[in-house]
Protein 1
Amino acid sequence: MRDVSYAPRTEAVRHIGPLLLQAQDLTATALVRLTSLYNSAYTDAAGSRASLDLLASVVSSSSLAGTDLAHELLANPYEGAEFAGHPADNEAVRTARHAEALPKMSEHLNDAVHQLDLCATGCRYLAHGIAENHVSAQDHRPPAVQQTTGAALSPAQYDALTALAAGGQLYESSTRGLGVTRVATQDGTRVSIATYRALAKRGLVCSDTGTSLFQGQKITVTGEGQRALAEPRPRAALSTAASTAPKAAAAQGVRR
């Protein structure tokens, strides 16, 4: 493990403060990426669960690194005026305080470095895993997805696909909090997240997972989706009750 340290007092605050903010920013970025991937069609890719677990570990390690840096700032011996009536520390007392704080600060900083090393390693493996496991072409989809791709769309799915072809976005709802993903279409057609996920699972649509859900991920209708739209709109199936009602009425008329 690398041994790093900063001198107590002003130097520690000047150097550790920006590092703490960067660690918190890393945690926020990793969390947004985790949410985006988990709410995308990537979850259907073989091996995606391991990548999601790995990205969650990056969130955890970066958060722990931020905590370690915050503890180092807490251990830093600050200089300031005492309350009225209390004598100020002399040089010997200040030297003793610094000597006591330095090992604690070094330990927290080394722990932070260790956690950030884990983040870097995790990100490298994550990038490799996504490159290996993320599949977009029809030929590389799992068999279950290939079988469902050719199935007929329902009228609601066809209408949703038509609306998304004109433009749409995935976004994080600002009214219900983190974790509620919604679909917005350019023409105002209402598309449920369940319908979107059904279309995405069949490879008919995809979203730009490189963009945060808070900013809005652009939805694209794939080539397979365009071919589905080239087919006539499916008809709504008649319900069993509606189709049997005339027959039942006719039978009653005959009995009379």
Protein 2
Amino acid sequence: MKDRRIQIGIILLFIFFIAISSIYNLRKESQTVNVSIEYKEKTIAEISRIRDQVVAIRGLNITKNIDVRFVDKEWAIRNWAPRSTDVPEELKLRELFYKTTFLIDWNQSIVSLSQEWVGLFVAASSGYTLYINIDYFNPDSQYSRNVLAHELTHIMQYEHFRVNWPSCTDARNALATLVEGDAGLVQRLYCSHTKECEPSEPWSIDYNNLYLSFSAFPYIYG
């Protein structure tokens, strides 16, 4: 289950901040969740330490402060997942396409699938903001360090290689593949150099969940 959460955690940024945000107005509450001082300090210390190591590995700096926000599963679903009462027309059409091409069953919905996946993320980044899911993130664990190395690389990419995302699906997937390939490589180098974690297994096509595999294209081929 931990390995699954690592994979889910590092693909959520693409699935929800790129795929769904392009057609859905994401809600972002300013109020997040409260955590203990010990948990907060330990997590921020780990982020700072791993940030320095990722900077050394990638050879690029992160010059601005990272805004660390602590959230939980319910907050993530409430803010990032589409709501069944307010589904954009394009998302409805996408669901119809997936059903007619047998990527999902007729009794499934993209809304419920998205809510399940959003609720499983470990950490995610958007710009200079790093979200930590307190339901899964353990600052003392190897898999959390693994995820942090990946997300900190995304923040580095945001600073140095900011581009406008294409509107075409194929072009967007191609660019996302480059982005995720870079973050995945740095993540693996971090684990191999520091010996503080085990690199995640390469993502492969899951024929029992073709919708997830389709969404994870950049991670499979990146």
Protein 3
Amino acid sequence: MMRTVYFKVIFFFFLLIIDQSLAADEDGFFYNDFKAAFLTRDGAARIADNGLLRLTDLSDKYQTGHAFYASPLKLKKGSVSFSTTFVFAIASELGANKLSGQGMAFVIAPQRALPGALPNQYLGLFNDTSNGQSSNNVLAVEIDTVYNIEFDTIQGPHVGIDVNSLKSVNSTDPAYHVNGESKQINVNSGEPVQVWIEYDGIDKALTVTLAPVNTLKPDIPLLTLSRDLSTIFLDDMYVGFSASTQTVLTYHYILGWSFKIDGAANALNLSSLPKLPTESSSSQDTKPNLAADSDQGFTYNDFKSAYITRDGAARVAENGLLRLTDVRDKYETGHVFYSGPLKLKGNVSFSTTFVFQLHLSWAPIN
């Protein structure tokens, strides 16, 4: 009898913790690294062992990389507001403050992927047919390092607010305000930069603010836009990042990310963000490890940095354990797929091995 009572107490306490974390997921999220982040990724996007999110690398030209929070968010209803902050870094193969390519963007889109999106000046957002279409239902804040005569009005690196098109509705040079003075930011210096993007659903005003990391958020935003975003969004929207490269090989990194609906995004703990690789370690990473992760096969002893897409209840724990379902709800599904396509047609052979374990929610786990 005592054993039964003890088990029930533990069981209900566990469910209480799960319910609280689920409520937090519905309103926003906070990632000081991406080791166990609930993300879907495609293209060149990877998560390093230290939790650093890398959207593109130096392995090839004309890359795209996407990473989206895997659950949809309700951003259309009523006068909903939102706030997000993230830290990024852009590092060119040519060195700090040299030519890089191409750029990256924070994206709000109606799906967790951007099919058909092109690299180079398209930033992995659109292609020559979709660019400018109102049916895109996409809002993006781009951080572009290269002037493009087709889309840009600023010759050089720039920050822009994009609505369904790469022709920004508002753009300017990367800068921040301090003590009444505007100071330029070298966004392709390889050094981390923090961004704050905030939307007031009552005033219908969007603001974008930048500053070097470890600098207080400036009181004056870099960009503003007066627009009712509910006219752009659908009922379910996804938030994430896109990046692309061209002939100059370039890393695009995200170090940490926080997002909140109807409130201020939680402040990132800047001192505990994952470290950027040194120049020497970056140069060693220019070629992918084909034996471990390629169109020929892969090996994962844990899933911390696995090149996979997930949906439903699927999560990767901090220790690298892949969990397909949990005890949050009945009738769950969870899916995990290797993100790269494999050629299996014809007389091809293949082999796979994996280790799994099942736990019933009413059975104690030792």
